[in-house]
Automatic annotation (TrEMBL):
Name this protein carries in UniProt: G protein-activated inward rectifier potassium channel 1
Membrane spanning stretches: 43-64, 118-141
Site (Role in the control of polyamine-mediated channel gating and in the blocking by intracellular magnesium): 132
One of the protein's GO biological processes: regulation of monoatomic ion transmembrane transport
Any one of the GO CC terms: plasma membrane
Occurrences of domain Inward rectifier potassium channel C-terminal (ranges): 153-320
SUPFAM superfamilies in alphabetical order: E set domains, Voltage-gated potassium channels
Catalytic activity from the UniProt record: K(+)(in) = K(+)(out)
Topology of this chain in the membrane: Multi-pass membrane protein
Subcellular location(s) of the protein: Membrane
Organism: Tinamus guttatus (White-throated tinamou)
GO molecular function terms noted in the UniProt entry: G-protein activated inward rectifier potassium channel activity
Residue span(s) of domain Potassium channel inwardly rectifying transmembrane: 6-146
Length: 322
């Protein structure tokens, strides 16, 4: 199986290992670390933190009632306890939940003859606010991340090489399945290929930029309908010496990065994919997917990935120039 740097779904196949003492850096940015965790770990930490905090605070209320002897005199009407109607640990736990969630049933309440209870009540309010702000904020950021918006951004399964306006071009297609637009959409391409420098240094994953219209503004997309992104192969292109015959022996990967602002949320979204050398079709062109209907344009996504052969010289741009 061809080892990819970036999968077709945009996941990067890079794992960090042997961090040593550098793992402490994750704890210094704990909030981002929690947001980056998988959902199952987020839910586990969310439930565990609240459970431990609730049991700890309920135990503190029970300890105060036990130290003052309120548990033995709970049914004495002439005695004023720290917290009324707290008989055991379950009742102390219910009082804490009523206070923390501001439910206030009125059956259990703190009295003024308990200074240690007032101090614990203030501490509980501060601790609860901190825990709620941290965990609920983490879950809100986790749910509002625009990663799923990238699921409705499509890339063609293959890239093609053919002539356009008399010039040999590398092309692929992008599309947006939603009616909501991607504001300020911009596309970039990276060529991942191993090479050896004149000094003998081997670079296994050397990154090279592919020009998809940076100088002309063609990389700024109005992604309302499917667009064909074009990279002109000229003397400045890394594919200057690429021909149909040499394509069979080459080994490279083209990483495509599409970024934009989600119109409905205003958050930045990024979608990625990649094309290996066996996914580049020489002498092909994409089928048209847009047709004019009665008062609107219709996009047929059933032909989004389809291509057809066109006459294309099998020579590289360098060979054609010679």
């Amino acid at each position: 199986k061809r080892q990819r740097f970036v999968d077709k779904n945009g996941r990067c196949n890079v794992q960090h290992g042997n961090l040593g003492g550098e793992t402490s850096r994750y704890l210094s940015d704990l909030f981002t670390t929690l947001v980056d965790l998988k959902w199952r770990w987020n839910l586990f930490i969310f439930i565990l933190t609240y459970t431990v905090a609730w049991l700890f605070m309920a135990s503190m209320w029970w300890v105060i009632a036990y130290m003052r002897g309120d548990l033995n005199k709970a049914h004495d009407d002439s005695y004023t306890p720290c917290v009324a109607n707290v008989y055991n640990f379950p009742s102390a736990f219910l009082f804490f939940i009523e206070t923390e969630a501001t439910i206030g049933y009125g059956h259990r309440y703190i009295t003024e003859r308990c200074p240690e209870g007032i101090v614990l009540f203030l501490f509980q309010s501060l601790l609860g606010s901190v825990v709620d702000a941290f965990l609920i904020g983490c879950m809100f950021i986790k749910m509002s991340q625009p990663k799923k918006r990238a699921e409705t951004l499509m890339f063609s399964r293959a890239a093609v090489v053919s002539q356009r306006d008399g010039k040999l071009c590398l092309m692929f297609r992008v599309g947006n399945l939603r009616n909501s637009h991607m504001v300020s959409a911009q596309i970039r391409c990276k060529l991942i290929k191993s090479r050896q420098t004149p000094e003998g240094e081997f670079l296994p994953l050397d990154q090279c930029e592919l020009d998809v219209g940076f100088g002309t503004g063609a990389d700024q997309l109005f992604l309302v309908s499917p667009l064909t992104i074009c990279h002109e192969i000229d003397s400045r292109s890394p594919f200057f010496c690429l021909s149909k015959r040499s394509l069979r022996s080459e080994q490279f990967e083209i990483v495509v990065i599409l970024e934009g602002i989600v119109e409905t949320t205003g958050m930045t979204c990024q979608a990625r994919t990649s094309y290996t050398e066996d996914e580049v079709l020489w002498g092909h062109r994409f089928l048209p997917v847009i047709s004019l209907e009665d008062g609107f344009f219709r996009v047929d996504y059933s032909q989004f990935h389809d291509t057809f052969e066109v006459p294309t010289p099998p020579y590289s741009v360098k060979e054609q120039g010679e």
